[in-house]
Amino acid sequence: TLLSDVVQGFSTEWNELGAMQIAHKILKDYHQKVNFAIIPAEILSSYWAELYAEDKKPEDMPISKYIIENELLPKVIDNMATLSVKGEFDAAKLDEFGFSMDGIEKILSNLHAAVAGTDHTPFKIPISALTDGNIVTQVTAWERKLPSKLKGKIKKIFMSENNVERYILQYEEEFGQNKFQNDVLKTRLGKREIVAIPGMETDDIFGTTENNFRRLIDVFDAPKITDVQKQDYKVKIFMEFWKGYDFLINQLVCVSNYEDTTYGLG
What we know:
It contains 5 helices and 11 strands, in the order E-E-E-H-H-E-H-H-E-H-E-E-E-E-E-E. By secondary structure, it is α+β, with helices and mostly antiparallel strands. Helix 5 links the parallel strand 5 (156-160) and strand 6 (193-197). The radius of gyration is 25 Å and the shape is globular.
């Protein structure tokens, strides 16, 4: 909810002040699955032949368990890390990798494209394009332009891993020895934590209030095997889970604006 100002001067008359708006933004969670097939007999002429056990069912063979635990599950985790940043949901391409959910880059792109003045508008802060020689100055400029009512509520600033590295290098070149305490990046001005997003390739900088950026969960929160079926010589692995990220209230998201001089909600 968003609540307007409520405090007023005292009088003995009832004078209603304050209105509550209940946001109607729909947060979308994405249903994911894995359908992966193992054919244990294919390893008989390979280095892994010793893991083929003729006295066991295909799904119980050491090779099947090895592939599931050491290859399949780590790959699923790696895929989800990529999708969480680079994914772009497309209902027509659900059988391809990359289109099963919206990642943070797409979520931010949607924020930038929001029509000014609508419920989906972020708080835009214009700054200059980032370079190796100005990134500290621009991050500081972005931080200074945070709206006064949010400054005390925004504790972290998010950006790409590459830009965090650029920030560290330029800070050291400009101010000498790194002054950051306990190896945790802190901004010079507000001592806010700078958080790197691995895999992110845009120059987006954003910050929001605590708990406004949410990881959505459902019945199956983490990748897990829901069924194993045998068909002829093939072992079919079924996995199912949900994953999604979004902001509860877009107006409380402060984003960098490189396109024009628009400041605020527009």
